[in-house]
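[Help] Beginner question about ligand-bound structures

Sorry if this is basic. My supervisor gave me a protein sequence and a SMILES string for flavin-adenine dinucleotide and asked me to "get the holo structure". I don't really know what that means in practice or what format the answer should be in. Inputs are pasted below exactly as I got them.
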Amino acid sequence: MSAELIVIGGGLAGSEAAWQAAERGVNVALYEMRPVRMTPAHRTGNLAELVCSTSFKGKSPTTAHGLLKEEMRRLGSALLPVADEAAVPAGEALAVDVPVFSALVTEKIAGHPRITVVREEVTAIPDAPAVIISTGPLTTEGLSRQLASLTGDDHLYFYDAIAPTVDAETIDRSVCFAQSRYDKGEGEYLNCPMDEEEYRAFREALLSAELAPMKDFEPMYLFEGCLPIEELAGRGEQTMAYGPMKPVGLVDPRTGQQPFAVVQLRQENQEGTRYGLVGFQTRLKYPEQKRVFRTIPGLENAEFVRYGQMHRNTYLDSPRLLQSSLRVRSEKWNDGRALFVAGQLCGVEGYMESAAAGIVAGANAARFLQGLQEAVPPAETMVGSLLRYVSGEAHPTTYPGGKFVPMNSNFGLMPPLEGKKRKKADRILAKVERARDHLHRFIEAEWALTEERLEEVIAISG
Ligand SMILES: Cc1cc2nc3c(=O)[nH]c(=O)nc-3n(C[C@H](O)[C@H](O)[C@H](O)COP(=O)(O)OP(=O)(O)OC[C@H]3O[C@@H](n4cnc5c(N)ncnc54)[C@H](O)[C@@H]3O)c2cc1C
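Answer (accepted):
No worries, everyone starts somewhere. Holo just means with the ligand present. The predicted complex, written as structure tokens, is below.
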């Protein structure tokens, strides 16, 4: 099989991109450097391995992440059906057993007759008819330098942290209780309750703990949506209690009362042998994590399966570089070839957002090779609004502080509704309905390949 499309990086975005293009009749070579060369955060050679949280966030379509997933399924996501198979109980969220999920994705992608997985680090952008770069936040240096040269100056970065995981057998169940906030779901979270005094002592311990030194010397920009717990502790006495430690909708069965604060633990695998500390991404030194987190009621004897850690997270100044199809605008790459950038690297933030970018880049790389017009979901959809944010085609002036920063999916990215003012809940429902309607029409008119066309394309590409 000779590849027409080269996809570099077999993470969330690269796996979706390779699948989309292959399903559209294109022969794909998917380059993934693991396990030959590992990143500081991944632990296996599996494709689409999640590096930290095991959650793909909300399932309800009236949440931004729920709508994003609904749209991705309709656009032909390869990963979401696998996520359903590898799901673990997580109430309103879709969370997966990571080793099961990534092993199933690897099997699915590598098993596609038009995809060849090549285990090799790519150090320079290859000269091929179509290339997708989806090497993620931990892109290696050689490729990183080449990407920087595309923008003509340095590309951007911030720091992102991972939360620790504990062995389920070492959690004291006589202290922790199973319940989801507001009793939504079936009590899938374990809650370590704290009274006010315990909370204050815990905050003090966090603030005085020693941090791991960073290798880089640049200023440390943190991603506001995923702040380390010690950073939150430093922002104010109550910040944690109103954030990841909020006790609302929870009742400690031992007291019949709402605790002052809780640390929530989420099941990380289908067997229920590992639990992650939700929202507890951290940069504390490993021995300090053990010391401080063991002061949490119920975790006094916890064994840590993995400690939290912090990494540099690379992304591009995409509004200057990319179209909403995620194709690079530069003339150098518009000479009969096409270069796309997908995933975290293009400035979306999060697992599902990265995968969604992969779907759009993969489909458009295939369309380019097949002489078809670009097709990007409309701005009224969650996927379309996110890609317009990234490419600067929607609200070029609204980047916080004038600087492009990565973005999660959210309803604020969508164009405002016309007509009368509505309450927040009604506004969201109206945006969801509008998104569904626009996506439906887009899929019918532009996205779906008719069977006839697909057969034609496959016949041409052999
Ligand atoms: C420390 C950290 C914690 C994070 N925690 C979360 C979280 O809890 N929740 C969340 O939603 N998001 C989190 N993120 C963001 C997360 O990385 C993205 O959401 C998602 O993994 C990005 O998908 P991707 O496909 O762009 O990159 P990745 O999934 O990282 O995939 C990129 C792939 O490219 C490969 N690669 C890199 N360079 C090369 C090369 N030169 N040649 C060949 N292959 C290469 C890598 O091995 C990797 O498999 C975190 C990021 C970091 C750095």
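A couple of things worth pointing out: The pocket of flavin-adenine dinucleotide is lined by residues 8-14, 31-34, 39, 41-42, 51-53, 121-122, 134-140, 143, 160, 162, 311, 313, 343-345, 350-351, 354 (CB under 6 Å). The chain has a mean pLDDT of 90. Feel free to follow up in the thread.
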